[in-house]
Amino acid sequence: MKIALGQINPTVGDFAGNAAKMIEFSRRAQAAGAALILFPELSVCGYPPRDLVERPAFVDRNREAALQIAASTRGIDVICGLVTPADSDTGKSVMNSAALLRDGKIAFLQSKMLLPTYDVFDEMRNFAPARQQSLFSFCGEPVALTICEDAWNDKLFWPKRLYTVDPIDTLVRAGGKLVLNISASPFWIGKREVRRDMLASIARQHRVPVAMVNQVGGNDSLIFDGSSIVLNAEGEVVARACSFEEDLIYFDSKNLAGDLHEQLEGDEASVYAALVLGTRDYMHKCGFETAIVGLSGGIDSALTAVIAADAVGPENVIGVGMPGPYSSAGSIDDARSLAENLGIRFELLSINHAVEAYRQTLKGVFTGKTEDVTEENIQSRARGTLLMALSNKFGAIVLSTGNKSELGVGYCTLYGDMVGGLAVISDVPKTLVYRLSHYVNSRRPVIPLTTLQKPPSAELRPDQRDIDSLPPYEILDAVLEDYVEDSHSIERIAADHGFDIDLVRRVVRMVDRAEYKRQQAAPGIKISAKAFGYGRRLPIAARSEG
User: What pTM does this model have?
Assistant: First the structure.
């Protein structure tokens, strides 16, 4: 039988829009001869709904939308994700479920058993787990229907398992001949390969085909890459959807032949596509049409502007140069050249008068004090004020331009360069910023060569360079990856890389002390295994390891 995977981009809470999209995809699949179509986890309401599921009206509208889909898709079986009421003694009122819609009604329900609580997930907060699961029949064959994490506990794949039960093992032992998995599995570098290898291990171990449909799109900080796949019992990929875009693919459940659509290869291409998708969806789903980017002439703001232009079109991006007392003529020229290359609007607003006004206002109270980082931060905050004024006047969103390296060690200014509604590259280390910028220019040279070649500088004092305050970014990024993403100790980081232990200790101290800044930062787009934000929950008032 022909089965379709409907890889869609839902919006959380947009029941009418999500239902319309699923009805459209179902009708297309039916016209192509498919007998069944799968949609992602919680596709009816969008993932992750978080505490919205505590609102009874949200749960009711979710069920109404599912019934609307059922009534509008007679003639094809539809599997979709939705929230259902829980009959549980856990105190949770709802479950994360999958519904089989058949002949205009909900013919079968399966609820998620394994509820993740690591990284960005907090499903035990919102959902009650299923106590048991069962098979359903499709074309006379018993089928195992699972939801995302239910597939992530294979004893032969993971050296340490998080759960005592394996839903897929139980369902296959009960007679399941085909494993279907509906997912909302977020992207990070390397995640697609891990996901594919894990599903291949399941297929080979149980000698059954496995089909996984994954959500695509950006919801807040999370990017869902899609990359839906079907594997035969040998673990070979027989059908594959595109990455980072909606797609509809088919496979035959008997001969296991299917569509093989191209996917992006390489970290730079994948990360760039994720950042563009995340920026576009964040803006559009939040109701913004125009983006504002402060252009310093540096590489971070250049990359952010390129991403914005690709995300929403150059006609919807405003670049703002804001030269100050120590801005070089070259930086201003680079900012203007970038804007011209991209075809975005460019405004030049000097902060000199504003900075001088601040100095005069503070002159009396600062009597006897030497100039220090305070005066540097005044420049940054003057720029932030201008950007937010433009945001208010034009109803546009400011995209902040700080990278993960700077945010990690607090080399950024609260209410200055940190202002904005979305921190586009806040999970992109500086070394990856350079790689992405070269990738961008390999497609079309838009970032000025001088921007790529000049030493990084905030230009807040004469002849300032980032290396005056920070280790070289190659060293800094290696320390940050080991400490932030892998939680390695100072001693291990120093030994593994041959770094001076005092240098590592200094970086770790900076990371820990900057927690208060990060918790006031704009949300960012997650592209690493461990990003700053709600996937890394640390106290502010705590003693530093360093």
Answer: 0.95
